[in-house]
Write a structure and sequence with these properties.
Number of strands: 8
CATH topology of the largest domain: Nucleotidyltransferase, domain 5
Number of domains: 2
Order of helices and strands: EHHEEEHEHEHHHHHHEEH
Mean pLDDT: 85
Number of helices: 11
Distance between the termini: 47 Å
Structural class: alpha/beta
Strand order of the largest sheet: 1-4-3-2-5-6
Low-confidence stretches: 272-278, 288-302
CATH superfamily of the largest domain: Ribonuclease H-like superfamily/Ribonuclease H
CATH class of the largest domain: Alpha Beta
Helix content: 40-55%
CATH architecture of the largest domain: 2-Layer Sandwich
Largest sheet: 6 strands, mixed
Strand content: 5-15%
């Protein structure tokens, strides 16, 4: 059932001041952002929604209207856990706009990825998780209204306020259900590691990182040479040329050589990790060149305002 949310809109610090102590007193908070696009250097932060895990009160900060730097300076000292959906996205915009980076986080998107072990396709978005865990249907079409050309001069509508508020409110509730499953499968330590890496990766993506181009290029060339040598061995064993990247051709080679083809979930497979493969082909098939592009020399353009 969709909750009745009490949404309080703030356009400056004056209205937020009385609520700041209360906000920072909650042991669990949820943060969601609305932006005009995906790039924290080229697009603008529109609003920040802050919910908690105890009631239906949600604060929406329209950062276009006022300066909230003072609040986020103190918010950076918050001792509880902050919940996000795809935290890296929100953290980038908070970092570029307010110079802050949070470390004690919970990411519902990462948690679901971990629980599903990659089994779901496009099934980790907030609308899917909200319906799955809370039975709440979300209308994500409202999201497009934040990117309209004239929106920057318009006030947030009631539908936009409710949309953003709900995005934040559901996060700690989803996390409660996920945490039960995380504990059931003893994934607490792995999830904790994943969460601790997020702020680091966020900063790396914003600033970039130093790379030994010469060394990586040398590794790339060495691995290509190894791969070519292994392919020659495969052709010698097979007695003819074939495409080692083609499952169909591999099956034919296996049959010619009398190598049993493993059956997984009712289908034949030539995956190298199968124990049923002969040791020689296991070594050959499992050796793959590192996918290191020569463009790793950071030849891609950087935004002029990139933090260096």
């Amino acid at each position: 059932m969709r909750p009745e949310l009490e949404v309080i809109l703030h356009t400056d610090m004056e209205t937020l001041y009385p609520y700041a102590p209360q906000i920072l007193s909650y042991p669990t908070l949820a943060v969601d952002t609305e932006t005009t696009g995906l790039d924290p250097y080229l697009n603008n932060l529109v609003s920040v929604q802050i919910a908690n895990g105890e009631n239906n009160l949600v604060h929406v900060l329209d950062v276009r209207k006022g300066d909230f730097q003072q609040f986020f300076n103190s918010f950076n000292l918050y001792k509880g856990k902050l919940h996000f959906q795809n935290a890296k996205f929100d953290l980038k915009f908070l970092r570029t706009n307010f110079g802050i980076l949070y470390f004690d986080i919970y990411d519902t998107w990462i948690a679901e990825k971990l629980l599903d072990a990659g089994k779901k396709d496009n099934g980790h978005d907030l609308a899917t998780l909200s319906k799955q865990y809370l039975g709440i249907e979300m209308d994500k079409s409202i999201r497009d209204s934040f990117t309209l050309p004239l929106f920057s001069n318009l006030d947030l509508t009631d539908s936009q306020l409710q949309y953003g508020a709900l995005d934040a409110w559901v996060l700690p509730r989803i996390a409660e259900h996920q945490s039960e499953k995380i504990k059931e499968f003893s994934l607490e330590r792995i999830l904790d590691l994943e969460h601790r890496v997020v702020p680091v990766v966020t900063k790396m993506e914003l600033k970039g990182f130093l790379l030994d181009v010469e060394k990586w290029t040398r590794i790339y060339e060495e691995e290509i040479e190894k791969a070519n040598q292994l392919k020659e061995q495969m052709f010698e064993i097979a007695g003819h040329l074939f495409n080692p990247n083609s499952p169909l051709q591999l099956k034919e080679v296996f049959k010619e050589l009398g190598i049993p083809i493993p059956v997984v979930h009712g289908k034949e497979t030539t995956k190298a990790e199968s124990r049923a493969l002969r040791s020689k082909f296991l070594k050959i098939l499992s050796a793959r060149p590192l996918r290191v592009s020569r463009n790793i020399a950071c030849r891609c353009p950087l935004a002029p305002t990139t933090e260096l």
